[in-house]
Amino acid sequence: MQVLEDKVAFITGGASGIGFGMARAFLAHGMKVIIADIRQQHLDAAAAALDRSNKNFHLIRLDITDRDAIERAADEAERVFGNIHVLCNNAGVASTVPMDQASHADWDFVLNINLGGVINGAVTFLPRIKAHGQGGHVVNTSSMGGILPLLNPGGIYSTSKFAVRGLTEALRLALAPHNIGVSLLCPGLVRSNLADTTLHLDPSGSQDPGSPFGDGESPLEAGMDPLDVGERVVSGILSNEAYILSHGEFKDEVREAFAEIIDAFPDNQMIDPKRAALEAMRRQATIDAKRVAANIQ
Questions:
Q1: Rg for the chain (alpha carbons), in Å?
Q2: DSSP 16-78
Q3: C-alpha span between 123 and 103 (Å, rounded)
Q4: Which backbone phi and psi does 202 adopt, to 5 degrees?
Q5: What are phi and psi of 44, to 5 degrees?
Q6: Which of the residues 76, 102, 141, 292 could staple to 90 if both were Cys, CB 3.0 to 4.6 A apart?
Q7: Tens-digit pLDDT profile for the chain (297 aa)?
């Protein structure tokens, strides 16, 4: 998408943190924005923070695990603003339950929202965006924890965000023929309300030894301004970027992670010619699909 003015965006988890940063950035660029969120207090705070004379935003209380509710929200969004052009599957939760101690309920809590919410958004909105034929863009919020594995307390979260990454990279190739761009947003630390939705969070606020934060201080306070992330998303949509990366402090670590993968391949391996030919065909098809995706207008 090369023009955002008067386009309509639907943002899940849109009333706080990264979602609200995107909402404010989109509004500043002349878009109409549906701000969907499960927490009424966040919706109320978002409404109070925005200029009520601006008629370009609309609030919807929404549980993204409720598929019928998402369909109703999509209908409401179209009644208010018309066709949806930009879908931001952003709502997410965290967990501090160690993955080797987690119950089924612990896993379900995170995966049903972080991964299931993205799937539910895609199933609901993609047919509508394809049907109006005006093109569009999807932004799925993963995390740097979807590129780099987090230590054990974050393992369930990291699992969900790695899954969002795979879904998004494949979806970009699938939607390119329909003139719909897809981007994966992988932020680092951002000032947000993620702690409000963290399962089994220790309320004491105590920090590990060596932490730069004192007792009662949250690491989130050192995070990037959500509006800066929102503006980074705007530029990513306009440039049709496959990966929207906002936190430069991770660059060397990501390079090291991918170097470790490359180094794990066997050297001087005899590869079956038929298998090699098959994979060469698959690789070329992927290259062609990525070329189409990169050239969406």
A1: 20
A2: SHHHHHHHHHHHHTT-EEEEEES-HHHHHHHHHHS-TT-TTEEEEE--TT-HHHHHHHHHHHH
A3: 28
A4: -70, 115
A5: -65, -40
A6: 141
A7: 889 999 999 999 999 999 999 999 999 999 999 999 999 999 999 999 998 778 999 999 999 999 999 999 999 999 999 999 999 999 999 999 999 999 999 999 999 999 999 999 999 999 999 999 999 999 999 999 999 999 999 999 999 999 999 999 999 999 999 999 999 999 999 998 765 555 554 434 444 555 454 555 566 778 999 999 999 999 999 999 999 999 999 999 999 999 999 999 999 999 999 999 999 999 999 999 999 999 997
Question: What's the predicted TM-score (pTM) here?
Answer: 0.92
Rounded to a whole number, what is the largest CA-CA distance in the chain? 68
Q: How far from the centroid of its chain's Cα atoms is residue 260's Cα? A: 26
- Residue 141 corresponds to which tokens in the numbers above? 């919020």
Domain ranges of the chain: 8-294
Q: Which of 20, 57, 81, 157 is catalytic?
A: 157
Other CB atoms within 10 A of residue 106 CB: 18
Length of the chain counted residue by residue: 297
Residue 180 CB neighbours (<10 A): 24
- Choices 3.90.226.10, 3.40.630.30, 3.40.50.150, 3.40.50.720: CATH for 8-294: 3.40.50.720
With tokens 């993609």, the residue in question is 126
What letter represents residue 50's amino acid?
Answer: L
Quote the tokens at residue 9: 């965006």
Position 27: which residue type? L
What 3-state class would DSSP assign to 114? helix
